[in-house]
């Protein structure tokens, strides 16, 4: 779930990440997206320790998230895992919720240009980012009215 949030990858991309796609030295994860092949996804530094530990604990894995049968997790299985933990936490969440939150956070706090956000998120058109910019702007406006 952390990788979904910190990278903003689609659940289908998450399931296709191989251990070889993880660049621990440069703190990046490569994924094959729907429209963009191999965009590098930045991941927050505090996440890397856990990822290193996960990879070290599974030295023979091909897939970053691999089943006991040595196959990759299915998108449906990831959806089930997210649902289980969301119910336990008393919230509503899907894998796409993590993507949406990541992109909204990047829109508000990263200082990245639209072209950079488009590359990171794998969106084919810049106009798609307008949804996240609108949500980020609404949150900023809501916060400024509370402070008054």
Count of domain modules:
1
CATH superfamily: Intergrase catalytic core
CATH topology: hpI Integrase, Chain A
CATH class call: Mainly Alpha
Shape by Cα distribution:
globular
* Strand tally: 3
Using the CA coordinates, give the radius of gyration: 16 Å
Main sheet? 3 strands, antiparallel
Termini separation: 36 Å
What structural class do the secondary elements suggest? mainly alpha
**How much of the polypeptide forms β-strand, as a percent range?**
5-15%
Order of helices and strands: HHEEEHHHHH
Characterization of this structure:
The protein is mostly helical and 148 residues long. The chain has one domain: hpI Integrase, Chain A. 55% of the residues lie in helices and 9% in strands. The chain contains 7 helices and 3 strands, in the order H-H-E-E-E-H-H-H-H-H. The chain has helices at 2-7, 11-16, 45-57, 75-89, 95-109, 114-121, 129-147; strands spanning 22-23, 28-32, 37-42. It has a 3-stranded antiparallel β-sheet. The relative contact order is 0.15.
Fold topology:
Elements: H1 2-7, H2 11-16, E1 22-23, E2 28-32, E3 37-42, H3 45-57, H4 75-89, H5 95-109, H6 114-121, H7 129-147
Antiparallel strand pairs: 1-2, 2-3
Helix pairs in contact: 5-7
